[in-house]
Structure formats: structure tokens, C-alpha cells
Design goal:
The complex is a heterodimer of chains A (288) and B (408). Chain A is built from twelve helices and two strands. With 288 residues, chain A is mainly alpha-helical. In chain A, strands 1-2 form a two-stranded antiparallel ribbon. In chain A, helix 3 packs antiparallel against helix 8 and helix 9 packs across helix 10. With 408 residues, chain B is an alpha/beta fold. In chain B, a hairpin with a 2-residue loop joins strand 12 and strand 13. The chains are: A mainly alpha (288), B alpha/beta (408). Chain B: This is Transporter substrate-binding protein.
Chain lengths: 288, 408
Amino acid sequence: MDLALATGIQALSGIATLLLISLGLAIVFGMMRVINLAHGEFLMLGAYSAVLAVQAGVNLWVAMLVVAPLCVGLLGVLVERLVIRRLYGRMVDTMLATWGLSLGLVGAVTMVFGNTVAGFSAPLGSVQIGAYSTSGYGLFLIAATAVLLAAVWAVLRFTQAGLIARGTMQNAGMAAALGVPTERVYALSFAAGAAVSGLAGALIAPMSGVVPTMGTAYIARSFITVITGGAAMLAGTSSAAGLLGSVNTLGTFATTPVLGEVLMLVVAIVLLRLLPQGITGRFFRRSL
Amino acid sequence: MQRRTLIAAAGGLAAPLVFRHAALGADPIKVVSIHDASGGLDIYGKPMIACVDFAAEEINAAGGLLGRPVQVINYDPQSNIQLYTQFATQAATRDKAAAVHGGITSASREAIRPVLKRYNTLYFYNTQYEGGVCDRNCFCTGSTPAQNVQRLVPHIMQKWGKKVYIVAADYNYGQITSKWVTKFFREGGGDAVAVDFFPLDVTNFGPAIQKIQAAKPDVVVSALVGGAHVSFYRQWAAAGMKSRIPMASTTFGGGNESLLLSPEEGDGIVCAFSYFQEVDSPVNRAFLDRLRAKLGANTPYLGGELAMRSYVGMQLWAEGVRKAGSIDRTKVIEALGSGISVDGPPGRTTLDSKTNHVTLDVYVAEVKNRGFNVLQHFPNSPPSDTQSVCDLQKEPNANRQVVVDVRI
């Protein structure tokens, strides 16, 4: 019983982490069809802003939940203005530009802050489940991811801004004809995506090594999740994260960590062979 | 600006450099250093570069070698193996370097070792690694498992118990080192309850931590490598495991791992290297004072052995050149093979001519407040693992890395 519960929590935690690191990318990709190869560095900057804010004496929760998304969101506005806006509809050029941006950000952070910052440890202590001990912060991450997902969904579903965003996403030309300033919608979406990435980076910071190159460890995973998920940003990303996260975690339990990784990639490849448009190309097609 | 003015200006800028060398007398002896100053491995590379440069400056301040100054040419392979090969070729053919110091991972070493062998360019690899390189042209000056793991395991067995759970990086270093850990545990009457390998980009260690709890070992030994794997230590502490199962590591502290963690996450992890910055000896204190005087606020934290071994590697090479009275490769190799030793900050380092590895001092230390607290000191540990598979006296043309057959 303990074992089942503890394993279930680990699986949920794996899913939540995948979802968290992919959501920002999914928003940008889903809204704008922009493939942001600097996504990993947005996560890294989120982690850095949180760590530096904590070092400067800011309360840990404020640093993670407010400072980090704010900083990276602002950077998102800047990047959209300077780079993305000039390359709309040119997918390959955008990839190249954001890749360059990713290298530049790694270099800049290394130069300004050095490659070593003293991280902060996870708050909330540990929780005992029968014979197993797990981190309270891990449970918080699961809850935080659920809340974040619900918040994004509620904004898109119930607010006017959400309606406009969804309209622009479905048919930008028609939305523009109806008087929607699509450029502004895109700019805001990109900033929102960046802010969510920054938040995700800050939230994983106490559980990972915060170094300038940390983005590379996450970016492949988040791309696989978003692409496997397909067009619908929330339903797609959550279903893909649910599937891949549990395959990875349970695979690791049943076999070895190496095979756990392999299994996850195999499932992603087979899925994309069967459903080239991603999970939401076939199922939940009308969802968000 | 016109081109002519530009050239004149450039000439003016370059002039002081030329004059400085002229002041030392003759044209410089070129040493090439190939270490990653950018990319994922820069946490190891930057302190190593600082120490190579510093060693050269000290040699020059003492009058250079054979009356000539030593000039270090630094190449940054950007954590990219392809660039390693390219820069090694450049060092041998264009720079005609007297020696090349460099390589951090075993993969980078195996990329440049054959190149430098082919071009007959002397090569120093100054990193802790898994042992077994047998090549007359290549000097390995870092510690190997028979030196560090052999000291680490008895220490932790005596302290904590006989059942070990090993977590290691999934490439040759981790695979081979985990075998050594198992071997030494069995020799002491203990055993490994499990060994888990992790690809270098794994960041979620939750399932692994739960598996360890189910296996109930007395101690966990980690041979994890790189920034992503730092996650393991943080998630371990977050799960409240630190107070339940103690941890030792063959890699922690080799780079800046101890600085990335908070004291409550890192404190108490036991490690073994051939040097720690905290080694308390007059030579080491004097060295650190000189380094700080030179680099000021930019002085890197040296942590475990990698940066210090780069300094010692330069010292050994310089000693070889002095003894040979020449920078000719064959003469220097012969001089180095005559049993050279240098007394440096980590203690005495003696070259073993049978293997081109070194006999060195090993220290066991525990992490304390982002640094180390040295617990034990073992002088003169020979590289017995490589000695068991390599004899360059009998077989001077050997050119291989032998995977030391660990009988477990």
C-alpha cells in the first residue's frame, strides 16, 4: 500500500515536472506556431532570477512566484520586439534566431553571474508515507502545476482576453478583420509564455543544479512533450506529459533509469508515427 | 579608419608583448592548453586554465626554462569533442607546441591522445579518471580508482556499514568506477545491493531515491557527473534522506558541486581526491596566498583535484625539461621516466615510468559549509590499477586504454 502510494506520487511528480517545463513552450507554440529554441534558457533565467533574488534577501516564495515570472516575462517582451516580431511566419528563420539567442543567453549569464551560484534548498521538509520518505516540496510542485494549468485554462476559457487569444489562434486573418490587434495579441502571448517558463524555472530551481547550461537538460524533454501533445496547447501538453511522465517513472521503477528514458522516447516516437499531428490531432480535437 | 592606420595601431598594441618576451631573452617555449572555458564543462575548465596560466607565470618569474620564457596558448573547445581534435592538430602542426596540457572528460582525452601521438607531441592529461591509459607519449597526472576509491571505501565502511547502493553516470567513467567501488566493498566483507546508471541529462531522481529507500543500504556512493546530476543531491536532501542514509562520492567536489548546494544539502558527503583546497600544509597555504595575490577577486575555488593537478602537471613537465636540458620530446620523456618528483601544494607527486601515471597523496574529506573538511591523509599512493595492466618499459609502443579488469 505504501509502495503503491509512494510510486503513484513519484509518477505524478514526474508528470507535473514535464508539464511545468513544457507549458511555456506550448503556449508560444500553440498560439503563434513559433518554435522557441531558447525555451531552455528561459527556464534557466527563471531559476537564476529566483536564486539571485533569494540571495538578495527576498522572501523565497516571492522570489519564485513573483520575481522570476516577472523578470522572464519582461525579457519575453523584449525578445518578441527585437527578434520574433521580425520573423513571423518564417519558421526556420525563427528557429535559427532563437537558437542564437539561446547561445547568447548562456554566454551572457556566464559572463555576468559566473557559472556558479549558490542555490537555495527546497522548503517544506519531507513527508513520510509508510516506510517511504518523500519531499514536501515535490508535493507542492504537483499542486502548483495543477493550479497553473487551471489558471491558464480559466483565462483562455472565461475572460475576454482569452476569447481574443483563442480567436487569433484559430484564424488570425479573420480576427484581424474583426478589429483584433493581432500583433499585440502575439506579443502578449509570447510574454505570457516566457513568464510561465520563468515561473517553471524558478519552481524547479530548488530541485536541480542551477548552472547556465541547465536549459539543455530540459529543452529536449519539453519539445518532445509539446510535439507529442499536438495542436491543442493545454489538453495536448497535459495528455502527453501524463503519458510520457508515467512511462518514464514506472519504466524506471520496473527496470533501470536508462531504460526508463529509452522507454519514454520509444513511446514518443511510436506515437508520432501513428499520430503525426500529435495526440490532439486525433483525440480531444476541439479542446484548448 | 584606414587599413594602414589600423595595422599601425595593431602593431602598437602588440609591441609591449613582443618587448616583454624579448626582455626574457629568447623566443618562447610554446605550451598549448586545451580546456573548456565555455559550455557545460566550463565549471571544471575555468579553474584548470587559471592554474595552467599561473604555473607558467611562476616558471617565467623564476627565469623561465633553459633561459627561455614559457608561453601558454589557450584554446577553448567549448565542451565540443570535435573542436578538441581540431585544436590538438593545430597545437601539433601550426604551433609546434613543446607539450599539450588538456582534456577533461575521458572522451576528450581519447579524442586528442591519438592525434598528439601521431604528430609526436608530448601530452599531459591532468584529470582524475578511471585509469588504464597506456601510452608512452601521454602522462596522466590525476588520481585513479586504485588511489581514491581504495581510500574512500574503507573509510565509509568503517564509519557507516557494509551495504552500499551505487548511483553512477552512464558512461565509461561511471561504469568502471562503480565496478571498483563494488570490488573494494567486497574486499572489506561488504557488498553492493544495487548499481543504477543515469544518462547525463537525467534531472528527475525521484524514482531512484525511492528505490534506494526500498533497498535500505547502509551508505550510498555516487559517481554522478555534471550539472544535471546535481539535482540528485538536492532531491535527496529534499526527501529528507540526508539524516537517514549517509552518502559518499567519487566525483562530488571535483568541480563546483559543493558551491551549488546549500550547506544543509551538501554537508556530510564524504569524498576522496588527491587534493582539496582546504589541505592544511605550509606549501598549500603559500600557494593559495600567491594565487590570490595574482588573481584577486577572480580567484576560483579549487575544490577537488582537477585544477591543482593541472598546476602539478605543468610543474612535472617543467621538471622534465630542466632535467633533459632540452624540449625535444624523446629526451623529455626519458627525463620524466627517470623517476622525477615534485613537491607541490598537494604533497609529493612522483612519476611512475612503467605507466606514465603518478604516485600521489590521497585525502579523504567531508563537505562542510560549501567547502571541505579534510579527515584523513594517505601519502604515496601508487597507481596500482594501471600498473596491473600496463608496462611501458617492456612495451614502449603501447597505445591504448585498457579497461582494467576489475575482479568482483
